[in-house]
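Quick check before the chapter quiz. The format below is the same one you will see on the exam, so make sure you can read both the input and the output lines.
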Amino acid sequence: MAFDAFDISAIGDKKLSIRFQRMEKKLQRRILLKSIRKSARVIRKAARTFAPVKTRNLRRNIKTKTIKSKDKSMVGIVVRTGTRAEMGIPQKAKGYYPAVQEYGSATVPAHPYMRPAAAQNKERFVNGVGTELRANLNKL
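Here is the expected output.
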């Protein structure tokens, strides 16, 4: 299946979508990633706010990471916690602190921080991507 263009129909702006579709794929990818990256800050900030504060290590290690498919036909962003090494968690440790906080365990109650951040800010994220796309397209 050939890759024609990125689908931004979720933004809900037909004129913007048509203008975007007429652009070169490489430029589409660059503008889309820039817009998504900036809009994802809302979710990252909320996740940091909701994260439990024992040592501040968890809050400090909530990051955004750009993702692309191998053929570069899909792009996106992930709000995630750091790796064990980044967070200073020993490799042989039984649990993974961020997951235990989010989902709980047999002995620790759940303190969700990522899921509420994403759920509460989904609309702001989508609207932000549309706003950023418009702003980036107007700069051209």
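If your answer matched, good. The mean pLDDT is 86.
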